[in-house]
Amino acid sequence: MIEFGSFEWAVVAICALLVGINKTAVPGLGTLVVPLMAIVLPARSSVGVLLGMLILADIFAVVYYRRHANWSYVLRLMPLTLAGIVAGYFCLKVISNARLKPVIAVIVLAMLAINYWQNRNSNEESAVPTQWWFAAAMGFGAGVTTMMANAAGPIIVIYLLAMRLPKTEFVATSVWFFFIVNWLKVPFNANLGLMNAESVKLNLMMLPFIAAGAAAGILILKHISQKMFAVIVQLLAAAAAVRLLF
Hints:
By secondary structure, the chain is an all-alpha fold. The protein contains eleven helices and no strands.
């Protein structure tokens, strides 16, 4: 872990707030947090620290959305997601901080492109296929991207939209999927040294900000245009990802 100055502490605290909001209100915020964390932390360390924040935020989310999950879709995705996590684990074993930063940037930009494609085609009845191979591809892609960059949100959004789930069921299914997946990633991250006593200590220090973000997200969702907010978030995420490339 690096020694934090005022700027680094401010960015990490803001990220903790955004992680909380991401889990209870605006899923697109997760894409912004990924490159921000990689800017103020070594790229490999940022993956483990962010995972700890996400797990803490997951606890608030599953309590709030403890019902209505459609478990058939969670279970359908899980085998290939686990395979993707293992693939991402082996990639992280051989990649350095210097090389991981542009990889994270490319993953984030790809996820933003997927989000844009999904938003543009969301009104078309057959915008995305629903065959078994689609679930397999989405599950594996989610596993790789979540292991390497904690950035699988847009993939799962596209899959669940294709399943035509009602809003509450959609959110609850996504929340429970990531709650399980993030815990599955813990032993892999610990084995790589990405999660350790120092990262857990930092996560616990950020717990008040995560809790505040989770509570704020519930209120924000009632009073803000999510469409406009999503556009701003995606632009900021793109800027942060481009910053990682240079």
